[in-house]
Amino acid sequence: xxxxxxxxxxxxxxxxxxxxxxxxxxxxxxxxxxxxxxxxxxxxxxxxxxxxxxxxxxxxxxxxxxxxxxxxxxxxxxxxxxxxxxxxxxxxxxxxxxxxxxxxxxxxxxxxxxxxxxxxxxxxxxxxxxxxxxxxxxxxxxxxxxxxxxxxxxxxxxxxxxxxxxx
Length: 167
Ligand SMILES: [Zn+2]
Fold this sequence. Notes:
Elements: E1 8-9, H1 11-16, E2 20-26, E3 37-39, E4 43-52, E5 58-71, E6 78-93, E7 106-110, E8 115-116, H2 117-128, H3 147-153, H4 157-165
Parallel strand pairs: 6-7
Antiparallel strand pairs: 1-8, 2-4, 3-5, 4-5, 5-6
Bound molecules: zinc ion.
């Protein structure tokens, strides 16, 4: 069941009520992500469960999944990236230390009761992106010639030089 995702949420209230949110978020909506993308069509699927863990700590658990068309930094062509982000975010209040949380845990410091769900999801996506997007093997660029033709047509620079030097 997908429901409309709210823009703003109150994570602690949702945790108290053990609520879960799921739905689709348009990629075009994520402003900070746009620079890394060559196509902003499509949607990201979001499932987030708000709850208290067995030590009574509020936490958001879930999954953010989808496909992103990143811009390959080598050939500048689209690179399909499969996004699979497991979310484990402990909720802290301002001033509360992260002491006692698992070392690997991420945490979210609440400055106000409510925050933007869109920003939260976008942050998680940005954290999961490769530092530099690169194809394992770049596809042939449509504007580049096949190797044989390119080789044959390319004049030998030393021959050109020789011609120029002739009196
Ligand atoms: Zn490439």
